[in-house]
Design the sequence.
């Protein structure tokens, strides 16, 4: 509570920082409406619509050293990942969720005692080339699974 917006930084609204909970709820409503509108637009144009959920390092084991700003998800009232998954499932929107690939990669790294980050140094949000490869694999799997 005392850290205010810097406790979650860019995740303040997606994770519902305690001090910004009302604004977070409103932001999620606006996001959901925009996603629904985008789905409707793609359906009208007979286009495939897939949302790629990019993991953040805060969700991963052994990536704490990338948390340079000491973001604290304990200051949140919303689980951003659960929220987006709920919105996508409720609105029958196809999505690619590479989090399991990131977790599998990390488990292998830990087993081999060879930590290799999946995000740029001191960046909790932007996957590096290894992370992008995992996201690409996930997206490819989703495309093949939903190919009509």
Sequence:
């Amino acid at each position: 509570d005392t850290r205010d917006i810097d406790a979650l930084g860019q995740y303040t609204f997606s994770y519902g920082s305690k001090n910004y909970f009302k604004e977070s709820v409103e932001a999620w409503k606006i996001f959901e409406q925009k996603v629904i509108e985008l789905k409707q637009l793609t359906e009208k144009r007979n286009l495939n619509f897939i949302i790629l959920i990019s993991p953040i390092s805060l969700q991963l084991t052994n990536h704490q050293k990338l948390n340079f700003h000491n973001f604290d998800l304990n200051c949140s009232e919303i689980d951003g990942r659960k929220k987006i998954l709920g919105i996508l499932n409720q609105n029958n929107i196809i999505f690619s969720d590479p989090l399991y690939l990131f977790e599998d990669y990390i488990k292998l790294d830990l087993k081999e005692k060879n930590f290799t980050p999946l995000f740029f140094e001191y960046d909790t949000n932007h996957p590096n080339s290894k992370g992008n490869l995992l996201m690409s694999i996930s997206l490819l799997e989703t495309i093949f699974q939903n190919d009509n």
In short: The radius of gyration is 17 Å. The chain is about 45% helix and 5% strand. The first strand starts at residue 50 and ends at 52. The CA atoms of residues 109 and 116 lie 7 Å apart.
